[in-house]
Write a structure and sequence with these properties.
This protein is of the alpha+beta class. 44% of the residues lie in helices and 20% in strands. The chain has ten helices and nine strands.
């Protein structure tokens, strides 16, 4: 797994900022990109963005093989038994990044109704947003690997401020709210989409191949730089790549770029 350092961290943040500039950005597409970035550091099985509001966990969006994680994927209502279980364990209200396991005895009732045995995740609290109902958080589910879960917690702590920022932006833009007992999104109150059904549909319809994501990412960087590849303000610098590496990817994916300045000459020579 890749080691976290300031250079890798800055590159990852630049990738997230870049995707926010896309025209039709959605909660699901941002979560897809977050999963892609975190997978370089954590052996991810899945990521779920949720909100806890009025004794109910609402699922906002997800990435991964959910059937290997959940007994069912949907909203979870806390009855008195589960609520008492959590009330007796004040650690659940912690605002710190922490480990959650379905095998933890203090949460056995809750886990037995929701998760499959042996499921582990890193809990990343975001907190309440003024314009968003409930307490928002993310679970990063992971497989066992050579590193300890403490390394994964450390990784998520690095990314938490940025993830909180991106979650707040996208949830506000998509106007998430509670309507008739369901968490819904959309600017049109007459045509809302429930979070659970949209999460399932988006996972199958919007989740793109790695090649498609890379191609789109490079194209957007080239658009933002006016087709400039090299130099301090070129696409290669924004993507954290050497210009020669980016040119190789441009040829590989057959990307057409707007040719300006010196890059017009280099493009004719390289392509």
């Amino acid at each position: 797994m890749t080691q976290i350092n300031s250079s890798n961290f800055e590159k990852s943040l630049n990738e997230l900022f870049l995707i926010l500039s896309y025209n039709n950005i959605t909660t699901q597409s941002v979560l897809n990109k977050i999963a892609f970035i975190l997978s370089a550091y954590i052996p991810i099985n899945g990521i779920v963005l949720s909100s806890f509001y009025n004794r109910t966990i609402y699922r906002i969006a997800s990435v991964g093989c959910l059937e290997n994680i959940f007994l069912f994927y949907g909203n979870v209502h806390f009855d008195d038994e589960i609520l008492e279980e959590f009330s007796n364990n004040p650690s659940h209200v912690s605002e710190e990044v922490s480990l959650f396991s379905s095998d933890q005895p203090q949460f056995s009732t809750f886990a037995s109704r929701v998760y499959r045995p042996g499921v582990s995740s890193i809990y990343i609290p975001f907190g309440p947003f003024l314009y968003f109902p409930g307490y928002c958080y993310m679970n990063v589910f992971f497989a066992s690997g050579p590193q300890s879960f403490q390394d994964y917690i450390h990784c998520c702590e690095w990314f938490r401020p940025a993830l909180t920022f991106f979650a707040s932006i996208i949830l506000r833009n998509e106007n998430w709210r509670i309507q008739d007992g369901q968490l819904v999104s959309g600017t049109s109150p007459g045509n809302p989409a429930t979070a659970v059904s949209e999460g399932k549909k988006a996972f199958h319809s919007e989740f793109k191949s790695l090649e498609a994501v890379n191609r789109e990412h490079i194209q957007k960087a080239l658009q933002l730089t006016g087709g400039r590849v090299a130099g301090k303000y070129g696409a290669a610098a924004k993507l954290g790549l050497k210009p020669t590496t980016l040119w190789a990817k441009i040829r590989k994916y057959g990307i057409e770029i707007p040719k300006t300045g010196n890059d017009r000459e280099k493009a004719s020579e390289s392509l």
